[in-house]
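Adenine phosphoribosyltransferase: structure, please.
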Amino acid sequence: MRLIAPDYYDVDIAGETTSLPMLQLDDQRAIALLMDIDMGLAFADRVGRALAARFAAMTPEIVVGSATLGIPVAMEVSRHLGLDKYLILQKSPKFHLADALEEPVRSITSDKPQRLLLDRRQIPLLQGRRVVVVDDVIATGASMAAAMRLVRRAGATVLGAGTILTEGIAWREALAEDAALVQRLGRIPQFRVVDGEARLDPASVEAEMTRPEPVSG
Ligand SMILES: Nc1ncnc2[nH]cnc12
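Here you go.
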């Protein structure tokens, strides 16, 4: 992992400041890295509780998450909604997934073509059900869009899309009207590498990220 200065980017995640390490992706790009699987049980519990609170009133019947980093999010959101069963969409074909429903992930940021897979034996868990789709980060929006397509192909209604963080702004265009379904606990910008340092990419910053907070009182 190639780290870059400044060492950390601080982001508010559900009311707590979280320091994310800065990672250089290539000559031009860097990201503030959120590895939810490395952040411990207290973090997983906190984000699960906070996202579940956003969706509870919609009375979802099942939570769907994408492997790998969406797995702890799906488990913790389910737990806090009082749901036992959850459903994971896989990225790599496993033996038992020979006959899976498949959706391409149209991502411009990954070098290899990717896809999301839904085990056909799990379709009954989704058919006619009210579903929340979750992931760790929504960046390009390509993974979330593919997950929503799969879930809808299986006959479910998507009530919402939950994520720990949104990254940049590209996801809004990729998700189109589904962007309105997104519930996030925080947001991060994207970064450009300039003189060996990560600098905030102004084009990735949401207008409301730089807008001063309204003064109360
Ligand atoms: N900043 C980030 N951290 C972890 N996973 C990501 N996927 C896309 N952006 C990410």
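Notes: DSSP finds six helices and twelve strands in the chain.
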